[in-house]
Amino acid sequence: MSARFEEIDWRPTPMGDISLRRRRDPSTGTDVYEVKLGDEFLMSSLFTEGEIALTRLGLAKLPGGDLDVAVGGLGLGYTAQAALDDPRVRSLIVVEALGEVIDWHERGLVPLGERLTSDSRCRLVQGDFFAEVGASRGLDPQAPDRRFHAILLDIDHSPQHVLHPSHATLYEPSGLRRLADQLHPDGVFALWSNDPPHEDFSSVLAEVFADSEAHIVDFDSSLQGGKAANTVYVARKRAAESDGQA
User: Fold this and answer.
1) 59: Cβ–Cβ under 8 A, 6 or more apart, which residues?
2) Contacts from 11-14 at CB under 8 Å and sequence distance 24+?
3) Domain segments of the chain: what residues?
4) What H or E segment, with its residue span, contains residue 216?
5) How many Å separate Cα 144 from the centre of its chain?
6) CB burial string 91-128: b at 16+ within 10 A, e below
7) Average confidence (pLDDT) per 10 residues, the chain, 246 residues
């Protein structure tokens, strides 16, 4: 039996102090893994419905197989693992700003670490997702011109509540157009948000993409004593746009 509480790792980073903690949930008897950045909770293994729904709702918009997928933000790995659980996915690249988080997975300190790092389809890359979306090298440092069938993003709390001011420009029309440039025609961009659907951001998505929608994902929350909800935005690129790649 594990201890009631354990701080598995703590490190200073350019974004603030990050920590990985494990505590025993007395109501279920299971271990709960939590990631904190400073005083903010980034993720908990107790609530993963939104992260999993991000992948499932995004990939559900794509017909056919042999999908190349990019994920922005590794966290505890639930978005990435949901992608690997889809047999149509042939490759997955996960872009994570903090090498410390990648190290947790490579060392098996988090529940999904061994599964992600042992899957030959999956590659964990340290990098700034927001900077690389706008850079000529793109999201995959090994293939600068590579495009994806889906880009799934789970880093900020929401487009209105970002972890760093430099992230905000991605959620503007110019930033989303740069992101869409890295998608195949009919490719999908999906975004997790901790806030309710936001009309202004939905309008920006509609300006850039062929179609878009906001899904509300409900789940049980013991911390709030009832139901809680996340939002998953799903947007599809216009098929008529010139691709230059098969």
Assistant:
1) 67, 69, 83, 86, 88, 89, 150, 188
2) 11/100, 13/98, 13/100
3) 46-236
4) strand 211-221
5) 21
6) bbbbbbbbebbbebbeeeebbbbebbbeeeebebbbbe
7) 79 88 83 88 88 97 95 96 98 96 96 97 97 84 92 96 94 96 96 96 97 92 71 92 43
Residues in the chain: 246
DSSP state of 2: -
Looking at domain 46-236, what is its CATH homologous superfamily?
Vaccinia Virus protein VP39 (3.40.50.150)
Q: pTM (2 decimals)?
A: 0.91
For residues 57 and 46, the answer to whether their CB atoms sit within 8 Å is no
For residue 145 the two structure tokens come to: 């011109």
Burial class, 134, CB count within 10 angstroms (exposed 0-12 / middle 13-18 / buried 19+): middle
Smallest Cα–Cα separation from 217: which of 60, 49, 59? 49
- CA pair distance 142, 137, nearest whole angstrom: 8
